[in-house]
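Late entry, evening session. Most of the bench is empty. Finally got around to the prediction I had been postponing all week. Sequence below, unchanged from the version circulated by S.P.
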Amino acid sequence: MRGPRADTTSRTLARGFAATGLALRRRKRHNVPMANAKEASTRRSVMKNLATGVGAAVVTAPKTAMPTLPSPAGTSPDGPDLLVTQFGARGDGATDDTVAFERAIAAAMQAGRRLRIPAGRYRITRTLTITRGIRVEGDGIERSVLLGAVIGGGPVLQFHAQATDSIMGPMLSGLWLDCAHGTGPCDGIRLSTGGQGAALHQAVVRDLFITNVAVGLALSGVVYRSMFDNITIAGIVAQYGVYCDKGFEDVTYNSFSNIEVTNVADGAHAFWIHSNHSNFSNLTSDGCSYFSSPGGTIRNLAVEGISARHPASATLLRFNQVQAAQGINLINIDPRRCACGIQVVGQAVVLQAIRCFGQQPLRLLELDPQSEGVIAGIQTERPAAMLEDYIPSETLRRWVVQAARSVTRRTSC
């Protein structure tokens, strides 16, 4: 049994996670008006308001005469940055800017120069494909907006390495991609390879706001030693926030940090990732997730409620061969929607510092019969089912359990 001090501490921590303060901070950061006090009390409502008001406060590109368009053949790697507006992009939210972006990308790849997307709202109706390691930068997520209307639901933008080709060091940052401007939601960003010998590595994808998507960020083929940081995927997530499975060949040694996925729809996942020997840190979501990363680690993962009426799984989090998971916070998880908190498959696994605030799953942990490892530090605000009541004793004997009186009757294991 937990004493009064532990209860007080956990309630204090829960209030620390309370949405009001975080929503106010986020509102200030994004300058989003609050409709009422109740709406202000949830982080997701703030993100939803921002996503549904896409482009409302965006500074559009001036509607002045376009300068003479330079051709790709006339560019030089020693020249200044290229701007998509130099190639005819208007950024007025109505004009189809796809062809202008394609010309700008071709010129930037040929010259090896940085491509900038000035403030504006650019309508894109066909996937923009980059096959070289160039840098693409917007003027910030509240200023440079791509309105995705891709026919067939493909990604708005993709980095793609073809057979025998290697793309090294592409960079993408400072953009808002809103993907619901066609007949249905399209995908946001994809990194992929195709054909033998193709590889994409040392990519940096960061400082992005991606809204109203089928799939927010997808990886496939051979993608390694790349970094994905400071990305919010919100609005409506119809299938996956971050996805890597289909087409998986060798997605390895990647880093995923400071990523939030909210408003996960019925049957959708926040994260569904196969990425070997990879690191995941500071992730937040309101939906089910699956992580497969032999030799990989997860640090500071929070799930705050379940937005879907019918989640993709009755198990909230599934860890497959993840070597270590530390700082897992489950906040107000409706047990009628997700009866199990965390399912673990793997050997020599370390689970450390698991906390439940408010509502919680009926069963906090599910352990695969062949799994083994260490569980250290579990705290729940409410009474939880004991591990001994639903996990076979032969499975529990394979685990060392410490500081977990919330879920076991044994004082030491």
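Two things to note before I forget:
The longest helix spans residues 98-111.
DSSP finds six helices and 28 strands in the chain.
Will write this up properly tomorrow.
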